[in-house]
Design brief:
It is built from 11 helices and 13 strands. By secondary structure, the chain is α+β, with helices and mostly antiparallel strands. The strands form 3 sheets. The protein has a 6-stranded mixed beta sheet with strand order 5-4-6-3-1-13, sandwiched between helices. Strands 10-11-9-12 form a 4-stranded antiparallel beta sheet. The chain binds adenosine-5'-diphosphate and magnesium ion.
């Protein structure tokens, strides 16, 4: 990293930082309903070599995209002006400056092992590594969680992607060997031990390597539907409906469009599944998480309707081959699924999924273990 930085900018970087991608164990489409999520960081990271500048210039380079250094001016950064990859790190600089932090420029060289567009939050990794580096170099004193909020602000308002807070919080705040239980309303969080290896278990990520175009509009539609449901129920957000009151809430929604009722059922039940998974992990009953993942998938498939044939095939083939549980993770319509499996079965289950994909004529999926890893940190 340092050599590549020097070749680009003519000097050694002041430091090197890393921030991971993530998978979400449970709690999907809940983060814009003030609900609960439970992501874990992947060993895959975006790495940034960074130096400060005092002349206002912002120079950005990624080893992973063609094209040279992108030259920007920190004082002239305009939201929504750039759909290029550089908008992610530039957005972070913009968000920091908007919040009054004296960031006077930077030279940044990035390289990432987080697969892009696979629902594993390569974008959040890019933002959070940038925010973490600038926070350290400019001695801004912001906490990991404050950096995550700024990174989300960058993605929402500078890049123009209406994502929730989960991805950035996961990349900034996860701890090795743990899943992160996050309340997306007040951002309170707890590290929940998730030691798969100690229990001879593995969590596989299956990247389907498809991304259906449907996804973008569908996200906004689900979001609007959830907000309509909350309004009709007279609550600030669907998070305010306790699981025990779900049947009554659905009855009260009898006059609402059918899809709104389905969305409400998904969100309220998935918040409940997060609570269930936490109770199981706290009790050390990791294997029992499997069936909860399968229920979560069914809810995403049938009620929220954000799955797709490839994701359903992962879950079907994996569970048929003996996995403890599986579900799509992230926004759906392609991207990745997770599979909880006995260590001894991991190979057979991977093979079964790969064969099922071949038989269905789908692209060969990429399968790798999700080892719960640490959040953003300084490397050098
Ligand atoms: P996800 O976050 O699920 O991977 P997104 O569509 O949110 O998918 O973000 C992917 C985008 O992030 C890419 O299209 C690219 O603009 C940017 N990105 C991610 N990783 C890199 C990288 N290593 N170099 C440059 N841009 C990247
Ligand atoms: Mg993203």
């Amino acid at each position: 990293m340092e050599d590549a930085f020097e070749a680009l900018y003519g000097a050694r970087p002041e430091g090197v930082w890393a921030a991971p991608g993530r998978v979400n164990l449970i709690g999907e489409y809940t983060d814009f309903n003030d609900g609960f999520v439970m992501p874990l960081a992947l060993p895959h990271t975006a790495v940034a070599a960074v130096s400060r500048r005092t002349d206002g210039a912002l120079r950005l380079h990624s080893a992973d995209v063609p094209g040279g250094v992108v030259h920007l001016d920190t004082a002239a950064l305009e939201p929504l002006s750039d759909t290029n990859w550089a908008a992610y790190p530039a957005g972070v600089v913009w968000a920091l400056r908007e919040a009054g932090h004296p960031v006077t420029g930077a030279d940044i060289h990035l390289a990432s092992t987080v697969p892009t567009g696979a629902g594993l939050s390569s974008s959040a990794a890019l933002e959070v590594v940038t925010a973490t580096a600038l926070n350290d170099l400019y001695e801004l004193g912001l906490t990991a969680s404050e950096l995550a909020v700024l990174a989300q602000h960058a993605e929402n308002d500078f890049v123009g992607v209406p994502c929730g807070i989960m991805d950035q919080m996961a990349s900034a705040c996860c701890a090795e060997g743990n899943a992160l239980y996050l309340d997306t309303r007040d951002l309170s969080q707890r590290q929940v031990p998730f030691d798969l290896a100690a229990r001879q278990l593995r969590l596989l990520v299956v990247d389907t390597r498809v991304k259906h175009a449907l996804g973008d509009g569908a996200y906004a539609e689900r979001r609007a539907g959830c907000e309509a449901g909350a309004r009709a129920l007279g609550v600030g957000a669907l998070r305010d409906i306790p699981y025990a009151e779900l049947p009554a809430a659905l009855e009260r929604l009898a006059g609402e469009p059918e899809n709104v009722r389905r969305y409400v059922r998904h969100v309220v039940s998935d918040d409940h599944r997060v609570e269930q998974v936490i109770a199981l992990l706290d009790a050390g009953d990791v294997r029992a998480v499997g069936p909860v993942l399968v229920e979560g998938h069914a809810s995403l498939r049938d009620d929220l309707r954000v799955s797709c044939p490839e994701l359903d095939l992962v879950v079907g083939a994996a569970t048929a081959a003996g996995a403890l549980g599986a579900r799509m993770t992230g926004g759906g319509f392609g991207g990745s699924a997770i599979v909880l499996v006995e260590e001894t079965e991991a190979e057979a289950v991977s093979k079964a999924v790969t064969e099922a994909f071949a038989e269905a004529g789908h692209t060969t999926p990429r399968i790798f273990p999700a080892v719960p890893s640490r959040g953003a940190h300084r490397l050098v």
